[in-house]
Amino acid sequence: MIGAIFHLARGAHVGFVLAREGALSFVDAAELPPHLRLALRIGRTLERPGLGAGAARLSAAMTRLGPSYVKFGQFLATRPDIVGMAAARDLEKLQDRVPAFPQAQAIRVIEAAFAKPLSALFVAFSEPIAAASIAQVHKAVVQDADGTQRTLAVKVMRPGVRERFQRDLQVMRFIARVVHALSPQAERLRPREVVEILARSVMMEMDFRLEAAAASELAENTKDDPDFRVPKPDWELTARDVLSSEWIDGIKLHSKADIVAAGHDPQAVGRAVIQSFLRHAIRDGFFHADMHQGNLFVDRQGLLVAVDFGIMGRLGPNERRFLAEILLGFIMRDYRRVAQVHFEAGYVPAHHSVDDFAQAIRAIGEPIHQRRADEISMAKVLTLLFDVTALFDMSTRTELVMLQKTMVVVEGVARSLDPRLDMWTTAEPVVRSWIARNLGPVGRLEQGAEALRTIADVVAEVPDLAQRLKRVLVRLDEAGTGDARRLERFARDERRRAIVQTAALWAIAIGALVLAFR
């Protein structure tokens, strides 16, 4: 009861802040039942005066509510399928910058993580140089056994942030249940599912071992790339609350002037941004989903370096083929092929017409070919594509939405370095290379070999499956040829066996829970 009162009070505070900052303007009253329309009208009266048409309403509200809501808002900015495009654009304005916490607290976190004094871990350890809602970064120097010194970036979890996230998460779950109870129609927006998606995303981001693993995987995928690299994590100095990685001496992509002053070619860097992202997405199926200027550097060798791997995206083989063929289809103006790819991937229901869908795709593609290449937005084309596919009952694909949002950011970064960058010419070599490799003769042979392996696995299981089937048939035959008493005894034995197995599984589960909370 006390918990419910607390959640209700906290939920009321959240609602007041959202109303005060004008965030309720993103709610479509037409979608609400009458009693909630009245509540919305009352809430809109609380808006503070002077809010302009372009005001950052949602982002301002999230900032006022604190670090948990800032992080959740940043995640929602990647999900316009949930919050809508207008809200997503507003949330993109969120700046995850908060005051740093004292160095002494950071030192206590590090010493607790490794059970060693700071002096046994680092030769030098700086004051914080950057701070965000979850963590802050320090510059440190470590000395190897051979006497070599290395400079590291040490990311330290903000004390108490995990507990605060958990408290705020409980409030969000409570609000989602209340919304569902007041308006079952709101379940179309999946409020409870959204909260759980947010919870999984943020809790993964708050385990720095997982971020180090993401950096390691991306580094392995890109080790042979000529224009991109990833700072190496130092696993010996990485724990759940501490992430140590190679220090990057480079220039952030915020300033084109600084890049030019350092002797680098901004046009080449812009091309590297686009081509690196597409290689990671199409070739590897694993991409950095937060590639804004603050997370990208140019190092002394002119290589593009990415940092901060808390938010990553994955694409399966079908999605990678889907993306590659769609981009190539638009480049070649082959709209029927673009339409066929949607149907082959199962994204558009088969009862629709491929020709009708191709006609809709042409309505997107033809206008872009009437403009100069540097005026065409690849991200806008994908956004329009997803809008059109909604008319053809294409179900929302979370991984494709994240990809599209990341492409918007990446394209913006590239164009800030080279406003006349031809996105399509830049993308074509990457797309063609992947298609030639995976859909050409070599790729077909590899797919055939994989199919043969699958068939071999199935064939290998046939004898065991046959023996199991034989035992079942024998038991059924025995039950069928005996009298009713034997059939009843057979059923009773099977029921008893099922009860025993179920009890054993529960015992194992309870035992595991006990061990987990010891």
From TrEMBL:
Pathway: Cofactor biosynthesis; ubiquinone biosynthesis [regulation]
Record's keyword terms, sorted: Cell inner membrane, Cell membrane, Membrane, Transferase, Transmembrane, Transmembrane helix, Ubiquinone biosynthesis
Transmembrane spans: 498-517
GO biological process, one term: ubiquinone biosynthetic process
One Gene Ontology MF term: transferase activity
Keyword Nucleotide-binding: no
Pfam families found in the cross-reference section: ABC1
The keyword Zinc-finger is annotated on this UniProt entry: no
Residue intervals of the ABC1 atypical kinase-like domain: 93-342
Family from the record: Belongs to the protein kinase superfamily. ADCK protein kinase family.
Protein name per the record: ABC1 atypical kinase-like domain-containing protein
The species this protein was found in: Methylobacterium symbioticum
